[in-house]
Amino acid sequence: MEQNFQVRDVFNERVVKQLAADLAGAWSGFDTKGFIHVVTSKLKPLSFSARAALIRDTLREYLPREYPRALEIILKALPPEITADELNGFDGFIVMPQNDFVAKYGLDDYEMSVQALYEMTKRFSAEGAIRTFLLKYPEQTLAILEGWAEDVNPHVRRLVSEGTRPRLPWTMQLKPFIDDPRPVLKLLEKLKTDPNQMVRRSVANNLNDIAKDNPELVVRILRRWRKINDDGTQWLIRHAARTVVKQGNTDALAVLGFDPDIEISISKIRLDEPVVKMGGRIIFHFEVRSKSRQAQNLMIDYVIHHIKANGELKPKVFKLTKIKLEAREKIQLSKRHSFRPITTRKYYPGRHVLEIQINGRRYGKAEFELR
After folding, report:
1. What is the domain count for the chain?
2. Other CB atoms closer than 10 Å to residue 15's CB: what's the count?
3. Same domain, yes or no, for 156 and 176?
4. Per-residue confidence (pLDDT) for residue 5, from 0 to 100
5. Which structural domain range is residue 298 located in?
6. 193: which DSSP letter?
7. 3-class SS at 75?
8. Which of 68, 96, 126 is the last residue of a domain?
9. Percentage of residues of the chain with pLDDT beyond 90
10. What pLDDT, on the 0 to 100 scale, is given for residue 197?
């Protein structure tokens, strides 16, 4: 990968030229030079989504105006199906604008468009494009996805889950399924023991999405699935529970084997320094002591209450460790936490608060100043 690579660079001159060559091979009337010139002359300053939209709309300009004929050419020009069971590399991204072409220009040609996405997702996930059809034709599309959940191709099965994630990043939310996720859960039930890790990961991420709005419902499902004697499903449960676990949901933690009613004591949290410079780090230490005569499973996290622009504190949970604390045992724990600037979080100077969270419950408190 080139130095200073950005995600938008997956849409570059090389892949545009390859797409043009493939389309010309499928249709002798394709203006290869014109297509390449229009796209590459505008590509450089554009963002990831804008580059995808440029390619999508330029396809509309250079392919026949009749949608069925244009789609026939696109399908004929598709690269070979992915043979691996995982999504690897970036070359397949060039199929994404073609998926989007179907979503934008083929919405009124339902059957041929959905069948096209079935073929396209075997090359690059059509998880964004299928959502347009889910919103306009929910019952019809859900019925098709139910059949695809049993498809032999794992990329098709993954689409069933990934395409119905209510809060899938980088694309439109599915508000109807945020409000009522039961149609999605019906699909996930068919995939919960899928043999493919890629599919199981998608199911876990879908449940994690749903848990952000319907935590009790997801916990009930995970509790029921916990009885399934399948290693892949048990991994799925742990991965699906990550948001509710961070939130300290004691029911979810109990499903994973972390009883909230533990017998422990926590020493005073000790900070190496009470003042941290912006871009620096805090180092903290504490002791956990068992007061039980039995071993206890502990999921130990820590919570930093960051000061926001309005002066209020907002908690953020960070993972620390999982341990089995033996009867009457005590352990010393330390952690370094960086305040180095990152794109997903903005820091503000002022008083911050640190807490320890064990099996969903908060223990101890220490304050420090970020300057």
Report:
1. 3
2. 18
3. yes
4. 77
5. 264-370
6. T
7. helix
8. 126
9. 92
10. 95
Query: Contact 165/154 with Cβ under 8 angstroms?
Result: no
3-state secondary structure at position 279: coil
Closest by Cα among 67, 138, 79, 140 to 104:
67
Q: Side chain identity at 330, as an amino acid letter?
A: K
| DSSP result, 204-269 | HHHHHHHHTT-HHHHHHHHHHHTTS--HHHHHHHHHHTHHHHHTT-HHHHHHTT--SS--EEEPPP
Read off the tokens for 237: 């449960």
* Same domain, yes or no: 3 and 120: yes
Amino acid at 42: K
Question: Does 158 lie in the same domain as 47?
Answer: no
- What is the domain-level CATH number for residue 303? 2.60.40.10
Same domain flag for 346 and 288? yes
| Residue range 180-236, pLDDT digits in tens | 999 999 999 999 999 999 999 999 999 999 999 999 999 999 999 999 999 999 999
Q: For 259, list phi and psi in degrees, rounded to 5.
A: -70, 130
Q: Dig out the tokens for 338 from the structure.
A: 């960086």
Rounded average pLDDT over 99-127: 97
Examine the domain organization and report whether 187 and 273 are in the same domain. Answer: no
Query: Based on the domain organization, do 85 and 12 belong to the same domain?
Result: yes
Tell me the mean pLDDT in the region 154-169: 97
> How high is the pLDDT of residue 35?
98
Cα distance between residue 75 and residue 57, in whole Å: 17
When pLDDT is cut at 50, 70 and 90, the band that residue 124 belongs to is very high
Q: Are residues 16 and 68 in the same domain?
A: yes
